[in-house]
């Protein structure tokens, strides 16, 4: 029973991180119709920046409590990168065929992956001080770190905040209007360029936040972004590209299947995920909640 | 107007055959002038060109961007590796005999699923399916060796007439294999030329340009796309079959989706709106990557910058840019 509880909590932890990545990917696709292949790398940048900030903080004797502030800082750094990238690199491509958008983001992925190697080197960067700073609780006689509960909480808060921002604020209305008809929104006097920058920034912030909160539980390693991207793809394909609800449900499905897979059929665990994704695409190409 | 077009077509047709013949002559003479290493690179280039040629039947002529062509390349490579391990003679012809039907069957099966979609969903579906193969190759280590991959020794060529062992074996193998691959490459180019200029190829281009109209004309769109997928995957698979004896090893890396990205890169580098684009792209990409890997540890960064610049500045690729330059030159000469 205790093991089951812990497995469920682990799944939720993974789902929370996956949701952060996939929701950003989905938001960007929903608003600007771009599949951002570099999204996983942005998540990895979030992890690296956070780990680096925490490491630097410890070296300079920053008190432990303040170190937790490095988590949003890592996410903000990624958002800043996004705000620079969107007008500079992506904007020329909105009117061109989507092949070019995929290619330019693929080029961006290659650049980001090697920049991380250039800046932080090949050795994994760890930030487990944050995880150790929080107490360990007992669940049915088994140890469980409270930090993991924090990650789950961040995921839940992010989901609620994003939902509220999209459906209950003025900016959300502008966002949805732009997503539905870019030219009409522009004709009505809406600053579409600004909406795009902000939407891309939010998407990147989510990815960065995912990387930031996950890095204390594991470590920032090279290639984590590329791996994360394919899993995020599976999530949005199952849930529906461009749908927030879809990203949430997809993340939960994928993480539970994966946890069960690692437990019961470790060799086929990844293959099963891709088969599910391909199956959903065949039966419901727009995913469970997609409308596009 | 018609006469003009005909004149243009006639001239470019003649020019094309003449330049193709010249390129073939240069390629035939190459081993006499270059060292073993250069020839080895050239083989890699030709193989990349075959893969890109196949890929481009989908992207350039059918308008479908596959982000999963690593699957067919990798299936070709792994089939050869499995044949080496479990079945008989170490002969290249035997590898081809077993490998080609396997890659054709794989592409037929995957293609049947993938062509139900177009545009971005087609891309994601091909990617997802290629990742299934990747994760199987990675995780079923008792069959595929996992991340260690599988070794493939030098095979004998021409039904065992040429075999390579002993001290000078490597050099001998490279020279012979160069001509072997070159011959297959020429056949592939010729075949693809025939395919894209046949009524079937024209139908594909019609579907690419206007799907609705093509359907009104009575074309069975999905079937056309499926056959295009099958041919495309088989060409790329053939490239994988040819690649693995040269490399001597196959690992799950050739199945990973970033390798598919490299195939896309190749086609774009040369220019996917041209028949010759992917061929040029394959050879240039091989040299570019080798050069980048040799000069800097951060070769991926270099390739990324090249890719982004290319997409921004030269969207028609090398061949597209050259032909546009040539056209402008001709116009300027004709103008006064």
A few lines on this structure:
Chain A has helices at 2-32, 39-59, 64-67, 70-90, 98-120, 128-133, 146-168, 170-180, 182-187, 192-214, 224-239, 244-264, 269-283, and strands at residues 136-139, 142-145. Chain A is mainly alpha-helical and 292 residues long. Chain B is an all-alpha fold.
Give a description of the structure.
The complex is a heterodimer of chains A (292) and B (336). Chain A has a single domain (2-283), classed as ABC transporter involved in vitamin B12 uptake, BtuC (Orthogonal Bundle), CATH 1.10.3470. In chain A, a hairpin with a 2-residue loop joins β1 (136-139) and β2 (142-145). Helices cover 76% and strands 3% of the residues of chain A. Chain A contains 13 helices and two strands. Chain A has 292 residues and is mostly helical. The longest helix of chain B has 32 residues, at 2-33. Chain B folds into two domains: 1-33; 35-269, no CATH class. A two-stranded antiparallel ribbon of chain B has the order 1-2. At the A-B interface, α5, α11 and α13 of A face α5, α11 and α13 of B.
